[in-house]
Amino acid sequence: MSLFEQLDELAAQGKPAALLTIVRKDGSAPRDVGDKMIVTADEEYGTIGGGTVEHLAIQDARSVLSGADDPGVRTYELERGGNTGMVCGGEMDVFIDHVRGQAQLYIAGGGHISVELAPLAERLGYAVTVVDDREAYADPTQFPDETDVIHGEYGEALGDLPMGTETAVAVATRSGTFDQAAVAAALDGEAGYVGLVASETKADHVLDSLAESGYARRDLSRVQTPVGLDLGGSGPAAVALSILAEVTMDRHDATGARATRLNLDDLVVVRGGGDLGSGVVYRLQQAGFPVIVTEVDQPTVVRRAVAFGAALYEDEVEVEGVTGRAAADIDEALELLADDVVPVLVDPEATVTDDLNAAVLVDAIMAKGAFDTGTRREDADVVVGMGPGFEAGEDVDAVVETDRGHELGRVFYDGTASEYDGEPGERRGYTHERVLRAPTDGEWTPTVAIGDSVTAGDVVGTVGDRPVETEIDGLVRGLVHGGLGVSEGTKLGDVDPRGESVDPTKISDKALCLGGGVLEAVLRLR
């Protein structure tokens, strides 16, 4: 049998193989350009020279077969000090290609799902075999001419068929007993995919019975049930399509995600682009959610080095590698989302949530219960409130605790977060002393910048003609933009007594913790 005949036979059996071809030879080498060999997971056919060079090439081929390495050219140095240890005095390039076996689909059960699944799989290039223990259902006339139809017991018939990583077994028999026999045969044959068409109760019974008979739970966890991707629709044809979609996704190690550049099905709108809301945005964006930030026209963003809301002043900001940019309208926001940029819209009421039918709305205004922000449970599929002022199960779906302490970041799906006590977070014994506040109404003009070190008594800016002084030594961590009209008592910034050990360009631990809580709620409720 020639090597190519051997390769065809392996493919017909559904067995993947690596084809090794010498594509370059320089100097003395044991074989010539064009010579080939085949390597499977446990066998070799032919030779490219024997010895150490072939041994290394076989190892490399099996790494390709396992998916640990990609196909391609490998160079083997056949000289003293080279990577083979051989002393022929030459060099050899070997191209290692991964040849997949014939995709096989075995269907246990010749009923209505099988009748729809078999022709669909045939069209996608699968070699299909249908097994049924009832003669009336093992009827070749019900299936395409290319489909093999076997009348026999499920376990026995499937056990006699060759299986491997390219084999998918879809089990859709008429009873749990037959399902169990078919699933067992598929697991014993180490099929690449095993799917069971069954209700949750029936599937539990089948898997529990197999576990009692000695099958390990780690093996049973490979059984896909409920079977298929959630594509919607009903009836045998829709079920068949969902099964084949999952089988194909699994065979190609794909995600099943939409290939479109921009998928708005999971769009999140975050009301409030301050530092805490930005921690939420960062977590969600890093997890793959498209996020739009909405803000008032002139937000009083204090820790603006880590706040996407600052984009309304600076046009574009970058927060730990994530870019935020001001968007003039929804069309521009969508354009930015397509480029993996976080759009920041002037939209105090977050009307974009309704306009784009957003899946999730997060209220990160941080009103602390001082006023009703207008966020309601019906605004999106999932609505999350941050801090006091929201009741989970009533006006929002979930509330995230924002008060520092043991409960920080905890998600409540019923009830409320702790009430705001008016105390700023403590740093080295300082609370209110850390905060810079407006001494009067007027226009704010800072004289320091975020990241500057200050000493108690330093003037850090003015409101009108009144100076604003820091009460403690430390590093200026937050500062609202200059030129804003502020009211007496408005928070203008904060000083961190830990000094230069704090990086004001890094999202705080608190903000990341809150982001984790929101991400939990979204993943659980979406």
From TrEMBL:
Q: Which residues form the XdhC Rossmann domain?
A: 105-247
Which stretches make up the XdhC- CoxI domain?
11-67
Pfam family of this protein, just one?
XdhC_CoxI
Note the superkingdom of the native organism.
Archaea
**NCBIfam families on file:** matur_yqeB
Protein name listed in UniProt: Xanthine dehydrogenase accessory factor
Lineage here is: Archaea, Methanobacteriati, Methanobacteriota, Stenosarchaea group, Halobacteria
